Amino acid sequence: MIPAALYQYVYLLVVTLMTLFAMSSYGRWGRLLNRNGASQAMAFLLLLVVVLFVGTRPQSSAFGDMGTYNAMYNVQAGAPFYLDKNAENLIWDNLFNWMSSVGIPFWMWLLLVAAAYFGLMFWACKRLYGKDVLLAFVTYLGAFSTFSYGTNGMKAGVAASLFLVAMAYRDKLWMSVPIALLTYGFHHSMAMVIAAYFLVLMVKNPKYYFWGWGACVIVAALHITAFQTFFAGFTDEHGAEYLLSKGGSDYIIGFRPDFILYSAVPVWLGYMAVYKFGFRSVTYSFLLRLYIMANSLWMLCMYADFSNRIAYLSWFMYPIVLLYPFISREKNQLQGKYLRWVVYGHLGFTLFMDLVYYA
């Protein structure tokens, strides 16, 4: 059995090797060479491996909230199940309690959560990228937040993966809207993303979002926190606690230029794609606007405790938005160019943060 302390490193090793393998399927100009479906089969095999690897991990404090989940699960085990209509997260909390009450073991619950988290992620990549699903999926697996939200912030992770599916079905609003709304039942923080989603459906000019993002950077730099108080009035008690508490966590509190620089990469690439290279894509425009809107809302709440968790509400879209212009189905001047820089740079950042910075 792999020691819990080494789990993330083994995960990163597998993702790195699979990234190299996926990139070997692309020619000099970023065109997928293998069109016989083998890459799609490999992507599904990778999905199974990751689900089994993460879902059967040992119970350890190395995985953050895992011990808390285990304790709560054991308390409910064997007890009669009653639908709690006032649960903080209506769907997640009631499913959690029901599965415990009917005797489903905790290890199986972990496996099912991993299947939902990575499976929904895979589904969205397959819907958006088709035959390029292997590269898209492995790029998502290599994102900075992917492993931690599959092992620690599981509730938010599953909600985010489900929202990715809603994004992937943007062209079918009769599916996309209900799925987006459903995410609120898994984690109440999705209210912010859902609000951004509906705004993006109504306001379609990307120019407003770029200007708005820049304005939010200025607001954050000036340490204006009035927006945190304003947003707290529209959320529940738990959400308001995050926004209004002062210094109650061990996380770095204050202006985060490192977070802004990381967040700025898809914004800058999006600006270049739209205005320099003239990339016109309804899907990409939607993905980009939604990412910018969600990230802008985080910057207005930058001085809150656990602001990294608020940032995740845009960062979970990061790999999807980052990769789209380079392997999209719509032909454009960026397609294939700089693909290796984007994929390896994205993975390299995660490896640096996990193996050097945090180590």
Short description:
This protein has 359 residues and is mostly helical. The chain contains 18 helices and no strands.
Describe this structure in words.
The chain has 359 residues and is mainly α. It folds into two domains: 1-187, no CATH class; 189-335, no CATH class. It contains 18 helices and no strands. Helix 1 runs antiparallel to helix 2. The longest helix is centred in the N-terminal third of the chain and has 24 residues, at 106-129. The mean pLDDT is 87.
Number of domains: 2
Poorly predicted segments:
none
Rounded to the nearest angstrom, the radius of gyration is 20 Å
The number of helices is 18
Largest sheet: none
Give the assembly state of these chains.
single chain
Write the layout of secondary structure elements.
Layout: H1 7-23, H2 38-55, H3 66-76, H4 90-101, H5 106-129, H6 133-141, H7 146-151, H8 154-168, H9 173-182, H10 190-202, H11 206-221, H12 226-232, H13 237-244, H14 257-276, H15 282-299, H16 307-315, H17 318-327, H18 339-357
Helix pairs in contact: 1-2, 1-6, 1-18, 2-5, 2-6, 5-6, 5-8, 8-9, 10-15, 11-15, 12-13, 14-15, 14-17, 15-16, 15-17, 17-18
